[in-house]
Design a protein that fits this description.
globular, alpha/beta
Length: 460
């Protein structure tokens, strides 16, 4: 039956059938890619009311086009370790959608990286970037290389080899990568240097998250963590709550976590726990951020070292237990699927009032249902953690104009962007029959901007 014939039927059922058909095709084409399936299902399900109200999006095959990457690049990355042994890793770049601008999305260096993870991240990035209101499309990349425990020389040799191949596919007006898990200032610096060496010119806008001395933006390293807190601040305000006097648990201890802790503390919260990939610390006296910054940003140590300096703190092996700590506000800022339905139920039982995702897809679909069913304020990743890519877009703008804005200017723009993301998500949720559901609202608000651009640009 054609879509034209289906229009005479119940529009909601027609929309559900359409979404189901496209999702089944995604599953068949991308077998065994569970993370990608999860990301697609979460977004697809929330778009049913859009297709029921505006069947033109079905006619133009928007879902079919959005769920298929424009380009997937996989490549070999050979490099030599400090013992003179040749190592080979695999590199990825998924250029998912360019309807709104050049592909934009981070590079992740972690042993877990595979095609499914890069595709789920790239797919999410389409909608996240759309929500920022900035002219950027969606992409993602990375490698199964593990920078943990590697020397600076090894990291340099790997990143130079990685960029030698990646440089063929990126550029300030084509594809602009940034950092993600395992890719910080050191890795960005080495990659930028190699890109400059290959191209023979200083194209500052090709990477974001750069050092301030060579085209980086003030407030970029703080942006994702600060942005998450700004989003939550608006969410709490509407519910008559605030960070002031609240107890907060933040998973992770990387860039996002550190600056979420910093901004939440500035707003009067007490942060009592954070973690790394080995385990977590609980400090009922409140986490000492200076210690965490030194351990993680300077010494590159494990979070377990914290307890040697702070007798009020305890360290626990494993990461899942961090969600057993009672708190008012939870900010999962570590990695995907770190909160399952069991952890979510425990958090609800312990009285959590708000959860916002600083990481990408840290809550399983079942966990999200638990939060929503129990009236927990929930900020989904594509909205709550969009601050990093928003300021990356501001970095691109500064590079294009060959000027730098002050920290205060960038921070003010970030705050405005996060407030707008929240308000637009609330508005979309109300307009399409799901008031208060920011998962649905963020997905719809992000989708509409991309979908309208896709229709305007024709079948491409």
């Amino acid at each position: 039956m054609s879509i034209t014939q289906e229009m005479t039927q119940d529009p909601v059922q027609v929309a559900k059938d359409y979404v189901h058909r496209v999702y089944e095709t995604v599953i068949q084409r991308n077998a065994h890619e569970s993370e990608f399936h999860q990301a697609v299902k979460e977004i697809f399900d929330s778009l049913v009311p859009v297709f029921a109200k505006h069947p033109v999006y079905m006619k133009h095959g928007i879902l079919e086009r959005l769920s298929e990457p424009e380009r997937i690049i996989t490549f070999r990355v050979p490099w030599v370790d400090d013992q003179g042994q040749v190592q080979v890793n695999r590199g990825f770049r998924v250029q998912f959608n360019s309807n709104l601008g050049p592909y934009k999305g981070g590079l992740r260096f972690h042993p877990s990286v595979n095609a499914s993870i890069i595709k789920f991240l790239g797919f999410e990035q389409i909608f996240k970037n759309s929500l920022t209101g900035q002219p950027i499309g969606g992409g993602k990349g990375g490698s199964d290389f593990d920078p943990k425990g590697k020397s600076d020389g090894e990291v340099m040799r790997f990143t130079q080899s990685f960029m030698t191949e990646l440089s063929k596919y990126i550029g300030p007006d084509e594809d602009v990568p940034a950092g993600d898990i395992g890719v910080g200032a050191r890795e960005i610096g080495f990659m930028f240097g190699q890109y400059k060496r290959i191209r023979g010119g200083f194209e500052a806008g090709v990477l974001t998250g750069k050092g301030l001395g060579y085209g980086g933006s003030l407030a970029r390293k703080e942006a994702t963590g600060y942005g998450t807190v700004y989003f939550v601040q608006e969410m709490l305000k509407d519910a008559g709550l605030s960070f002031d006097g609240s107890t907060v648990v933040v998973s992770g201890s990387g860039n996002v976590s550190i600056y979420a802790i910093e901004k939440a503390a500035q707003l009067g919260a007490k942060i009592v726990a954070c973690s790394d990939s080995n385990g977590y610390i609980y400090d009922p006296a409140g986490i000492n951020l200076d210690t965490v910054k030194r351990l993680k940003e300077v010494e590159r140590s494990r979070i377990s070292e914290y307890v040697k300096e702070h007798p009020t703190a305890s360290y626990y092996e494993g990461c899942a237990g961090i969600w057993s700590i009672p708190c008012d506000i939870a900010l999962p800022c570590a990695t995907q699927n770190e909160i399952d339905d069991e952890s979510a139920r425990l958090m609800v039982a312990n009285g959590v009032k708000a959860v916002a995702e600083g990481a990408n897809m840290p809550s399983s679909l079942e966990a999200i249902e638990v939060f929503l069913e129990n009236g927990v304020l929930f900020g989904p990743a594509k909205a709550a953690n969009a601050g990093g890519v928003a300021v990356s877009a501001l970095e691109m703008a500064q590079n294009s104009m060959r000027l730098s804005w002050s920290f205060e200017e960038v921070d003010a723009k970030l705050h405005e962007i996060m407030t707008n993301i929240y308000r637009n998500s609330v508005k979309a949720a109300e307009e399409y029959g799901h008031p208060g559901n920011l998962v649905v609202g963020a997905n719809i608000a992000g989708f509409l901007r991309v979908a309208d651009a896709a229709i305007a640009q024709g079948i491409i």
